[in-house]
Specification:
By secondary structure, the chain is mainly β. It is built from 2 helices and 13 strands, in the order αβββββββββββββα. Strands 1-2-5-12-7-10 form a 6-stranded antiparallel sheet, with helices on one face. It has a 5-stranded antiparallel sheet with strand order 9-8-11-6-13, with no helix packed on it. The protein has a two-stranded antiparallel sheet with strand order 3-4. The two termini are 24 Å apart.
């Protein structure tokens, strides 16, 4: 990991101790729980683990690029600087900005509704969060905004200042 020289020491320690690896959307992660029980997704009819959970770490300069998951995803703040989470409604493209962690209105978790677009970044040196998905996460239920040309066009018309998160 060549980025670690300039990285916050605590973030570097978390990556090593929690055995985090690079995530395709940005940042670092490790799955911490995957239920053995299975169920049929009410969204796509596919068999999924009932529940999954990960650690997810973003350091200064990293972003979790706009993506969506077909199932609800709950973000949990654990430590570090506040995490800025952006949720874009899949139908209206209305935007909400949620800050997890220490701020004037303390909020430590937020649910992104299945199908909504989401992106995140640390407001400081690092943010350690967790993400829980029900039914469980599967990469086949995941899509980057850049892969949906129509949605990307509408998104950029409404939110041109957020193009760096695609």
């Amino acid at each position: 990991m060549r980025h670690l020289k300039k990285m916050n020491k605590r973030a570097e320690k978390l990556i090593n101790e929690l055995k985090l690896i690079p995530h395709p959307e940005g940042g670092y992660y490790r799955e911490t729980y995957c239920s053995e029980s299975k169920l049929i997704s009410p969204v796509n009819g596919e068999i999924r683990n009932s529940l999954t959970d990960i650690y997810f770490l973003l350091v200064s300069g990293q972003v979790s690029r706009f993506h969506r998951v077909i199932h609800d995803e709950i973000w949990h703040f654990y430590e570090g600087d506040p995490l800025e989470l952006i949720e874009i409604q899949s139908d209206s493209f209305g935007m909400s900005k949620i800050i997890l962690g220490d701020n004037a209105i303390v909020k430590y978790k937020h649910c992104i509704k299945g199908g909504n677009w989401q992106a995140a970044y640390s407001a400081g040196e690092y943010s350690l969060v967790g993400c829980t998905v029900f039914p469980g996460f599967d990469f086949s239920d995941f899509e980057f905004l850049k892969e949906d040309a129509d949605a990307q066009t509408i998104f950029l018309e409404k939110n041109p200042k957020l193009s760096n998160l695609i």
